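Protocol step 4 of 6: structure prediction from sequence.
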Amino acid sequence: MPELSNMTAAHFIFIPAVLLIGIVLGWILGSRAAADHYRAELRRREERLKNRAVDK
């Protein structure tokens, strides 16, 4: 088992920083994906309404 004395103080800064960057990137990419999905769903609904109006 490695000794804790071998770890430098950089570990206590670097590891949380990498986690925070990952959370921020995930938040941004996830919100973009959700917005794209919402816009696609709105387009599908509009197309369905247009098709129903033409069929009648």
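Step 5 (inspection) to follow. The chain has one helix and no strands.
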